[in-house]
Amino acid sequence: MITIYGVYRSRALRNIWLCEEVGLPFRHVPVMQTYRLPDPPPADAPTHTRSQEFLRINPNGHIPSMEDDGLVLHESLAINLYLARKYGGALGPADLGEEGQVAMWTLWAATECEPHTIEILFNRPQLPAEERSEAKLQAAVAALRRPFAVLDAALAETGFLVGGRFTVADINVAEVLRYALPAPALFDGAPRVKAWLTACHARPAWKKVSARREEEPA
Ligand SMILES: N[C@@H](CCC(=O)N[C@@H](CS)C(=O)NCC(=O)O)C(=O)O
Question: Which atom of ligand 1 is nearest to the CA of 34?
Fold first, then answer.
């Protein structure tokens, strides 16, 4: 059985979402981020990203990691590409052309968007003023205007990213763009992106995993 290492309140959610879409059973090991614990973490702390037993799985000290039949993978988006290709059926690429498109959108999300969407999350208006930077938030919003316009145009034809159907590309990009939700002006300026993300979040699998995420301590 597949094992996914990482709490719901982390990028592991992307992998858990994909498993739920496919109906793929998995063993969940809720490794948490060390920065969410006191420094230094107490001896009885839950397993975290600097625990020796987890560092033996992922020496990078990041979640998520995944194990499947002896194969260990890190990097949340790559894990989803692997799971979709092996178990995903129509969620995965149907041919080499689609595989290229899925990889393109995934790398686009990771490189063109995620550095900025993370800045939005870490500097969101909901945080106390002393814990955030309005300048960083605005710089991230400005940097994302073009990627949002690109995505908005790409969604014009079918409302999906690859093959006119919901695929792992939608999951990977949706999970990266979710971090930008605290900047609603970006979505108001890209109505197809807004409608697409709303549709992604209306899927039963997403609702299920996001409810479980809410149940986890913040
Ligand atoms: N590029 C990696 C990033 C992994 C990452 O930074 N994960 C965060 C949680 S979402 C983490 O492990 N933070 C805790 C730490 O760095 O100790 C991926 O997509 O898997």
Answer: 17
